[in-house]
Structure formats: C-alpha cells, structure tokens
Amino acid sequence: MGGLYLLDYGAGNVRSLANALNRLGYEFKWVEKPDDILAADKLIFPGVGAFGSAMELLASKNYAEPLKQYIKLGKPFMGICVGLQTLFHGSEENPNVPGLCVISGTVKLFNKTDKAVPHMGWNEVFYIKRIDGVNEDYLEDNHHGIKQGTVYYFVHSYAVPFTDELKEWTLATTQYGKEIFISVIQKDNILCTQFHPEKSGYAGLRILRSFLQGKGIVNNNVCESFIIKNPELLSRDRFTKRIIACLDVRTNDQGDLVVTKGDQYDVRECSDGSGISGQVRNLGKPIDLARRYFDEGADEITFLNITSFRNCPLTDLPMLKILKRTSETVFVPLTIGGGIRDVTDPDGKFHSALEVAGEYFRSGADKVSIGSDAVYAVEKYLANGKKLSGDTAIETIARAYGSQAVVISVDPKRVYVDSPVNAMGHHVIPTSYPGPKGETWCWYQCTVKGGREGRDIDVHQLVTACETMGAGEILLNCMDKDGTNSGYDLELIQDVKKAVKIPVIASSGAGREEHFEKVFAETNVEAALAAGIFHRREVPIQSVKNYLKERNILVRDMVPTL
Q1: What is the pLDDT of residues 44-56, one digit of tens each?
Q2: Active-site amino acid positions
Q3: Binding site members for L-glutamine
Q4: For residue 476, what are the contacts with CB-CB under 8 A and spacing of at least 6?
Q5: Which conformational region is residue 10 in: left (phi greater than 0), alpha (psi within -120 to 50 degrees), or beta?
Q6: Binding residue ranges for substrate
Q7: What is the C-alpha to C-alpha distance for residues 99 and 51, in angstroms, rounded to an integer?
C-alpha cells in the first residue's frame, strides 16, 4: 500500500496530469475505492468541471469523508482547480451543495463587467507570503517551485477572493481585471493551485516535481521569518494574450491522417491551373507538429477534425489516439473539434454528444469545439421562443464539465446589403470594405458542413444564444479571410466581442506578425489562432511573441526546460 495516489472521480481530463507524473518519472496508483485515500502517502486531487458535479461525484463514490480524514492526518495533499475550491464551505456555482468545509469561505463568480468570463489563459502569481532576506531562486525552491512573475494556465469562472481572514492559507494571489483572488493555498500539509500545473508547460511541471520531492514550506508555524503582506491592486493585470496553433486534421487520398490547410476551406491543391482539385495538402503529421508547437511556445493547440469517421466505432476513432499520444509530451491546453455530436456505432450502439465529449476528455482534451451542431441547436432554440431545452450538446457538456470546456466554432461568411432593411431581420454592421456593388452594409451568415451550406442565422444570433446555453468560448473563423494571409476580419471580431462576455479567439487571415498586434490592439480579443503560416514556418510563433512584446502586449515567456 502507500505511495502516491491520484484521485480520479470521473470528470474531465486527468490523463494530462497522469502523463505529467510519468514525464517526471513518478509511479502512482489510481484511487479506486475509499480505503485507497487513507492508504496514500501523498495524494493529488485534480478537480475539473463544476463545483456541484465534483462534490456530488465525491459523495456518490464515498470519497468525501476519507478525503477530509486524510487531510486531518497531516499527509501531503495537493488540490488543483476545483480540487482547491472543494476545500471551502461552498460555491456560488452551486449554492445548495456543501463543500468539504476544510477552510471557511465561499467560492464566488467573477465580476463580468470589466472582463471576459471564464478567466481562460495564462496569468501571473504574486507571493503574499515569503521568507525574509533570501533571493528569488531560493524562494522558488522553497515555495513548491512556484516562481514570482511566471505565468500559469487558468481556466475557471469562480474563484476565492483574497481576504484578511484567509491570509494564513494564502501563499500567492492573482489579479484578473480589478479582482484579486487566491491562486495558491499553502498551509501545513496542504498545497492547492487554482491554475493547472499539468497544463502550464515546464513551469507547471516544476511545481508538481517540487511537491512530489517534498520541498516547500511544510509547517507555517515553525517559520518565524515569514513576511505576509496584502496584495497590491495593479493598474493593469498581468493576464497575457494567447497564441494558438491550429491543426486541421483529415485523411489524405492514401488513408493517412495528415495536417492540411485550406484556402477558403478548400484543402486540395490545384496542380495544373485548370481548376481541377488535386491531392489533399499534406503539411505534416499531427502528433509531430503538435510537439513542435509546444517546443516553439504555443499557448494552446487546437485539433480540428475535418474528416467524417461515420463507420468507425466511437472508441476506435483515430483522433482519440492522436490526443492520447499528443498529451504524453505536450503540456499546454488541447482542444478538439469535429464530431462532437450524437453518434451511432456501426453495430447500432448509440452515444450521446456528452459521451463523445467524455471520451475526448479522457483521452487528453481540455476543451471540445462544437461547429455545425451549435448552429442546429440555436435554430431550435430560436424556433422554440428562446427557451432552453437542456438536452443540446452545449448544455449537457457544460453542465457536466463546466462552461470552460465548451468552445463554439463559428464559420461565417459576409452577405452584403445596400441597406439594413434588406437584411431580412439579421444583425447588420456598416463596413469599410464595400461589396461588389458598392454596398456599405453586411451581415455574417453562419454555415455548416465545413462552410458548404449557408443557414438563415447570423453570427450575432449564434454567439449570444450559445453563451446563454452555457458555452465558455467562441472560436471565430471567417470564410472570406481563410487562407488569404490578409489579416483578421476586425469588423467581425469587434462586433462579436461587443455581443458576448465569454472569451473570443480570432481566427482566419493571419499572414504577418503585425496582424496579431492589430487584432489584439483593435478588438481586445483574448486569443489569436493561426495555422498555415506556422505549419510552413513563414512566421514562427516566437517571432509573433517578440513582436507583441515590443509593442507592450503581454504574452507568455516560455520556460524552455525542467
């Protein structure tokens, strides 16, 4: 018995944490029954998803009481994200569900007036508790590998506000907008992080290694040289802009899975100038490219599966294998899109979209991206008088795994009109780029089936409805800009940013470093995604980041190694 145990209560992506422990050379056991918790010498609780779901699953498996007993015994305990939040009395996320009640206080929803929620991306931590008279290297070594000024990956809508009453529990705080919350809890045998170390690159792996090696402050009461200070509210938080590498994955004519890239969604070469489509563009192997982008400093990696595997059983889907292999060596967030819908296996077995998403999460995905099915869901929502059905893929996945796990991928195209009255009731915007007949107004029509079919629904309708349904992020593509290298559609992005309070990823059109600067400066979008220019090494990721830093736009500095 004994040893290191990992508590998997059945929600979200714990494979990445398991892979991080394997990468660090540590063996571990899974908690499979309540007695395993008390048998552990060290225990990690990687909470993922909603507070209420986490507590209900802990109760259903009879884990809650042994977990509280384990902590009281003084054995090393590490909680991550919801694993931190469950130590408190309760959460505004699920007011009627009690927590473990180890720490007094309530987890609260972020204020949405000055920022996007969820808080999704890389942000700094600031010590409020430190040892007097030592340098930063010593502090990092003795604060569980957590380094002042380093950014870590957060993804949450609820947090514990810092208060004087919680000073003794607080090692570090983080500022988001004008709110300061507790990002690291440390007292006696307890270490908890609101961020995800297993998704924070090598900086995060250092924290896990330090905990496993037993370094860091163990007993606050025996260290009289602590300096404890209140965190300072900065004029500007240290939340960074994300640079995301996107890999469109499909089978080529030989049946191999390859990364490709389309020009306005056409992924085949036109080899002889005749207009006849040739071979599928092959820009590399998905796993190899994902690892390359991790090494080059990508803040996230998105896989968009653009091949239909309708005759393949769910558990044999090739993208599951790609995720499993990728998550073994890539320690930043992974998103998977394509095929997140109700499916039926060749033998007739039915799987709901929630089951499909669960398979992807267990294979290493942190978020799932829903495209065409989001459009169909919103059409039904609008036809039903804007009443939620509760059974859409968006709603069921968000309820089980949290809104931060659901991304809506939007594929719109411009429709020009000479006057708003001719837009058939759709949301129109004035444009500085006139249409073919000199039109100065346009609306953005949503498409399905990879852009092949337009629907009678506009982007404004789609994104606002999806936010209401529980989506946590918008991946905003643009068919008119795809593959052009002419820059992002700023008018579209600005309009969507005004319409929703959830984070938005700008996509389609990046061709130079200045396009990234322009989209961040003019739209305040949270992230920018690119594909072809990264695949072909025309614009390296680090060149983009260096260009942005020179213009005072905050980006993550990569920690190169362990």
Answers
A1: 999 777 899 889 9
A2: 81, 196, 198, 248, 411
A3: 81
A4: 410, 459, 492, 493, 496, 504, 505, 506, 507
A5: left
A6: 339, 477
A7: 8
